[in-house]
Amino acid sequence: MEERARQLLLLAAVAGVGAAFGALSTAAVFSFLSRAKRREGYVRKLLESNGGAGGPHAGSTGPGARLHDSSDLLSDEVVAEQLTRNIQFFGVESQKKVTESFVVVIGLGGVGSHAASMLLRSGVGRLLLVDFDQVSLSSLNRHAVATREDVGTPKAYCLKKHFSLIYPECQIEARVQLYDSSAEDEILSGQPDFVLDCIDNIDTKVSLLAACVRRGLRVLSAMGAGARADPTRIRVADLRESSNDPLSRAVRYRLKKDHGIEGGIPVVFSMEKPKAKLLPFQGSKEEETPSDYQIVPGFRVRIIPVLGTIPAIFGQVMASYVVTQLAQLDFQTEPIVNLDLDHYRVLHHRLLEHEELIYGSAEQVLVDAEEVMYIVKELWRGRSARDQNMDTGRKMWRSVNELMLVRWDKSKPAGVSNLILLKFSEADAHESTTLDQIKDEEPEFYAMVSRVLKRAETEFAL
């Protein structure tokens, strides 16, 4: 009766401001109260069912866990409430793609633990967590969830235990296992929607990346996060475009030499030069060698100094990239283009000269050097429009002396949505043809350019 009286008082208060909030009906208020009470009881039961979780094998697939078909996760009221911000961001259908996805994370240290944690919090429906190592006291400066109580336990079990308390509906499998070629079928089976390579050993990393390429699996790889301090220099790009990173350089060389793979693998890397080197090996006895301290053969024992925030940001970047890919959210990563403002001023001046030569005046040039930077860097990624479907990597770092901006449609002014970047010889050929000819003779090129310029229209609200 007291609960009913409180509800009636609330309804009376709502009625008192009915002129301003007439859309809020009595039925809606009762529905809200009822929903809130059900959710409160539901969450209480959920917490009680999780009370026994805590052993190394605890997790969403353990006894007492609520098992769900990933295809109906969003119909669960608690799950929908927990993921409400994601749903608002992506929309229901796109978020459903995330909750129905299966992601494999290999390597669960500073980078991998943070990546896995945000994949879980973003609603990924199934996770396979793989790492052979244990939580150490020194790893607590960068691990996503580990506590002192977890020291000495396998990293995979540690994550599963904590994850089961955050999002128990996720189907989590934890494997204390070293990835190598013999484990390929076991770990990469099941058609994962994405594989995250968070391994810091070159041999194992190369083996995994080659296997993913061979199997046609989408993979995102983390390069070196140690000995860095500047979060603004972290980028996502093709492996061929990564620079200032010794690990990237070694992985590129080994993939090409051993597997004939030259690129096509997105990576997270830092453009910052490492601030410190590997610490020297110091054994306790003179006759000891580094191999005496290896956990498994082939893994380094010398330590890389690590500022814990940087691997955490690497992991967050990886999770963001993967979740948006799973949700099919279209966005363009910032291209790696080695041009400074003076180069863009040169291209702007060259455009003015070209307009005066072809049209007798530069009055219809509607862009300045800053907008030229947007066109060259964001739209054409620092290379000729006719090179857009070619391999990226170092080919995109062309000399500015080879390139110029020209109008796409000669009947329209030279604005941000009507300029393409071409080499000199290509620009001459373009000036002697028409859009109708290009559309008839090169329909794919015409469609690609139209699509890129449409993006400029959208982003500049033209």
UniProtKB/TrEMBL annotation:
<comment type="function">
    <text>Catalyzes the ATP-dependent dehydration of threonylcarbamoyladenosine at position 37 (t(6)A37) to form cyclic t(6)A37 (ct(6)A37) in tRNAs that read codons beginning with adenine.</text>
</comment>
<keyword id="KW-0496">Mitochondrion</keyword>
<dbReference type="InterPro" id="IPR045886">
    <property type="entry name" value="ThiF/MoeB/HesA"/>
</dbReference>
<protein>
    <recommendedName>
        <fullName>THIF-type NAD/FAD binding fold domain-containing protein</fullName>
    </recommendedName>
</protein>
<keyword id="KW-1000">Mitochondrion outer membrane</keyword>
<comment type="similarity">
    <text>Belongs to the HesA/MoeB/ThiF family.</text>
</comment>
<dbReference type="GO" id="GO:0009536">
    <property type="term" value="C:plastid"/>
</dbReference>
<dbReference type="InterPro" id="IPR035985">
    <property type="entry name" value="Ubiquitin-activating_enz"/>
</dbReference>
<dbReference type="GO" id="GO:0005524">
    <property type="term" value="F:ATP binding"/>
</dbReference>
<dbReference type="InterPro" id="IPR000594">
    <property type="entry name" value="ThiF_NAD_FAD-bd"/>
</dbReference>
<dbReference type="GO" id="GO:0005741">
    <property type="term" value="C:mitochondrial outer membrane"/>
</dbReference>
<keyword id="KW-0547">Nucleotide-binding</keyword>
<keyword id="KW-0436">Ligase</keyword>
<dbReference type="Pfam" id="PF00899">
    <property type="entry name" value="ThiF"/>
</dbReference>
<keyword id="KW-1133">Transmembrane helix</keyword>
<keyword id="KW-0067">ATP-binding</keyword>
<dbReference type="GO" id="GO:0061503">
    <property type="term" value="F:tRNA threonylcarbamoyladenosine dehydratase"/>
</dbReference>
<keyword id="KW-0812">Transmembrane</keyword>
<feature type="domain" description="THIF-type NAD/FAD binding fold">
    <location>
        <begin position="84"/>
        <end position="339"/>
    </location>
</feature>
<dbReference type="GO" id="GO:0061504">
    <property type="term" value="P:cyclic threonylcarbamoyladenosine biosynthetic process"/>
</dbReference>
<keyword id="KW-0472">Membrane</keyword>
<dbReference type="GO" id="GO:0008641">
    <property type="term" value="F:ubiquitin-like modifier activating enzyme activity"/>
</dbReference>
